Amino acid sequence: MNHRNTQPRLNVLQAGLLLLSLALAPLAHSENLTEDDVTSFIASMEAMQPLIDKHQDFIESIEDPADDEREVDFARMMSSMVDEVKGHEMYDDLDDLVDDFGFSSPEAWARKGDRIVSAWFAIEMEAQPDMAPDIAEMERAIAEMENNPDMPEAAKAQMREMMEQMMVTVKSASSAAKQVSDADKRAVRPHVERLKAVMEQDESDYE
Hints:
This protein has 207 residues and is an all-alpha fold. The protein contains eleven helices and no strands.
């Protein structure tokens, strides 16, 4: 048996496996959420109040009156928040806080949070499939409104803007929910009530 070409062939195989592992490295974030991820994230949110109180003036300064009208990326809700506080003392305080709960950085915390919040949305939408307005019905309502000669143009414009924004929001939420894996939903499902409570409390703190 000829062994002369065995080593070169093995080297080629090893090189191929190495290249494959490098190519797959960016996909590490796709690992399933664990219940520890979920409980740690929720606990960090429950501990957030002192940080919010400390930076209330800054939070109010970055609030945009047009926020209610802009498109919301439901798949990046937490990451968007981290983006907004970069470069401010609040980012450093957030870094210290999330480190206490096992997250290596605000960005890592936010990436887990994005997935947890998206899984929560998906679970809520599955439980209440009729909760979101039907896009086709909304489009028909807009068409009927446009053809209504008795409605002033200013009122039409206002209603059109509101309904179009609602459609964008519904589509964004639906898109985020569809990307959630069954494994992520299984990890989040036992903690939905606790997550809902802390997220709703967090929202009220910003009002």
